[in-house]
Amino acid sequence: MTISLEKIFFAYILRNKKFFEVIEPFFFKNAEIQFVFNVLKKYLRNNKDSEIPHPKQIFEMVQLEDFDGLITKEILKSILSVSLQHYDESNFIVPRFNAWILSNKLKIGTVDIIDETRNLDTITDFKDVLESANKIKSIVENMSKTDFVNDDEDLGSDFDDAEQHLQDQSKYKVKTGFSSLDHILGGGWDVQTLNILMGMSNAGKSLWMQNLAIRSANIGYNVLYITLEMSEKKVMKRLGSMRLHIPINE
What we know:
Blueprint: H1 3-14, H2 31-46, H3 55-65, H4 73-80, H5 89-117, H6 126-143, H7 169-172, E1 173-174, H8 179-184, E2 189-190, H9 205-218, H10 232-244
Helix pairs in contact: 2-3, 5-6, 9-10
């Protein structure tokens, strides 16, 4: 990793605030860039609603932290003056930037796994070993996450784009299993809308939900039914009667 590439990455981070949460200062091998990045990261952590400071403010912030005089005006200017317009963002910057982050995450995770496994020889209790296994599993999951790669942000639909107005019922609707209800709902449940069934106590809300669950399953949908009040036995009795066509008393 060259210092010039690290400066490009630093400039790219300054344009994308979210990366301050993903990147750690020691990802940078250059001590000056690492120092400046650490100052900014601490500032943004303590001021979550703040935007990335102006270069002049960055210099003042660095001066307050730089007790050894590590960062001169010339060094800071060389770090902050990189122009990204001279580089192909999608084909040059982004692939290298993502590879840099992921490789550093893998290195950190590998070290953490080694530290966790060092004590396994002295553990004899199964619960302790299971706890250690879960820690290692969590480390592996965190070190291999790539959710930082996609920088696309969904800002909603563009009204002037006619394609955004297309209504694909097969994509946005889930049939209820009741033709009359599907007709009222314009094709079924809208999957992008929170659908709530409301009614008085003992009005039959749960029975309706169970009917809808069975009807949806019968036409091929995967269904998850959750209840916080009824016993599992009672729910299974109702669902079984509907699904298996067995009288509920039997």
